[in-house]
Amino acid sequence: MSQDSQSAQELSLSYEFQVPFYDLDGIQMVWHGNYVKYMEDAREKFGAKFGFEYLHIFNSGYVAPVVDMHLKYRASARISDVLQMTIKYIPTRAAKMVFQYTITRPKDNALIIEAETTQLFVSRSGVFETSNPDFYVDWKKRWNIVPNKKH
Length: 151
Hints:
By secondary structure, the protein is α+β, with helices and mostly antiparallel strands.
């Protein structure tokens, strides 16, 4: 099958993790800032699965800071809760990476968090990239990524 006749893939990853004691706040719930850490963990796992690790970006001459983040807290998680993280890559034409996240609690189907982050490519000399770096173009081709019209 040729590259042109393949359909675009949706790149996503889901996994479960247990809330550790040290992530709780004084009222026995996961402290709100720890959800950002969980999202970072998801991006690292995504990168490992799809060949887009931060070290690959860095070795290509760039860094990819988070420049925009939106979180909607829907319910609270507590100690020993088993949560499911889902991260989804949102294709875009621009020189940026957009990810959507959901965190749920499978035992009662509670939606804990909905979130989205945007990362831009910045050269290691500090210049924001306005066009897709070659390594990013190659990665998109590898996974047959077609940009979303919204992003």
